[in-house]
Amino acid sequence: MTESEGETKFSASIAAMLSLTGKVLTVLGPVEPEQLGRTMTHEHLTLTFECCYCPPATGEEAAALAPIELKNLHWLQQNPYSHHENLLLCQETNAVRDELLRYRKAGGGTIVENTTTGISRDLPVLQQLAKDTGVHIVAGAGYYVDVTHSDETKKMMVEELTDIIINEVLHGADGTDIRCGVIGEIGTSWPITESEKKVLRAAAHAQTQLGCPVIIHPGRNPAAPGEVVRVLQEAGGDISKTVMSHLDRTILDRGELLEFAKLGSYLEYDLFGTEVLNYAFNLVVDMPSDSQRVQTLAFLIKEGYEDRMLISHDIHTKNRLTKYGGHGYSHILRNIVPKMLSRGISQNQVDKILIDNPKNWLTFK
Ligand SMILES: CCC(=O)NCCS(=O)(=O)O
């Protein structure tokens, strides 16, 4: 790049940055925050999740190879990661389009699509889905967990990773001009690997420059969310504009949850609709039911955290689509909201969790 090309790119970046202040960045461009409406802050519309395949238990091999049909659905719901085809949500764009139309009918406005590099982000598909359905879609910049980092990614310095993330937000990702409106989900394992720490630092540096939202996938240990916050804070990240995902399967003890909540991130319960007996990724965890998730939301509200809470389904396997007998993207709006209201959570508090908190998080500073 010549000096004058460099200066032109720098000026274009400054102009792009300034134009995002006070806006939310969707795959169709910036929108006013008031346009978002009810928002699911952690979903996937197209991805491959083969990185996380879990071999079936001995004796279950036949079920793992069987086609997805009615008689297998219960097995699939209990063993979603042990069936290769189930991990290919990228094959279901037509079904997802139908789902998004139903989501709109149910009162939904926006979906944050958390697929990052490593699990087959597909921005042209996201843009087409937004055009076809009228749902606002916000795409994610950055990298998923270490096992999906390429050798090239692992060799990069924090500065290079920061430049890539900033570019994905300001100019477009994956060789397109489609821009990401949030950094994440940034994947971390437990313990956090060196490569993941570099990506976390890059996310924090990019956030400092852009004033943008960040969302984190923590490792599966109660200490993981706090450790991620520490790494981000040391790198200058804005924790008040950062979401900690998957708390449902990560911090189950209420005392530990309150200790974590004090650190100031958004607290996300995003596995609504997932009811499994044996959680394959961490067998010591008793995955909560939806009723227990609602009880935890009520508890956090009582403790004063209604401005920091977000909810979603994190759909990332086929069996969770209505096409395959699953709950779909409208489960929260159709079933969980009435349950919240019946358990003493007010309409005003529901609106904060589904409209105001997502809007505040997603708006660029
Ligand atoms: C890509 C989807 C994803 O990471 N979902 C989280 C699943 S779990 O770790 O909470 O089981």
How would you characterize the overall build of this protein?
This protein has helices spanning 3-20, 61-65, 73-78, 93-105, 123-133, 151-155, 158-170, 194-210, 224-234, 254-261, 290-302, 331-342, 347-362; strands at residues 24-26, 29-31, 38-43, 108-113, 136-141, 182-187, 214-217, 242-244, 266-269, 309-311. With 365 residues, the protein is of the alpha/beta class. It has an eight-stranded parallel sheet with strand order 3-4-5-6-7-8-9-10. A two-stranded antiparallel ribbon has the order 1-2. Helix 8 (194-210) packs across helix 9 (224-234). Bound molecules: the ligand CCC(=O)NCCS(=O)(=O)O. Residues 44, 49, 119, 217, 246, 249, 271, 281, 314, 316 line the site of ligand LB7ARUS3.
Please summarize what this structure is.
Pfam families: PTE. The chain is α/β, with parallel strands linked by helices and 365 residues long.
Topology:
Elements: H1 3-20, E1 24-26, E2 29-31, E3 38-43, H2 61-65, H3 73-78, H4 93-105, E4 108-113, H5 123-133, E5 136-141, H6 151-155, H7 158-170, E6 182-187, H8 194-210, E7 214-217, H9 224-234, E8 242-244, H10 254-261, E9 266-269, H11 290-302, E10 309-311, H12 331-342, H13 347-362
Parallel strand pairs: 3-4, 4-5, 5-6, 6-7, 7-8, 8-9, 9-10
Antiparallel strand pairs: 1-2
The structure holds the ligand CCC(=O)NCCS(=O)(=O)O.
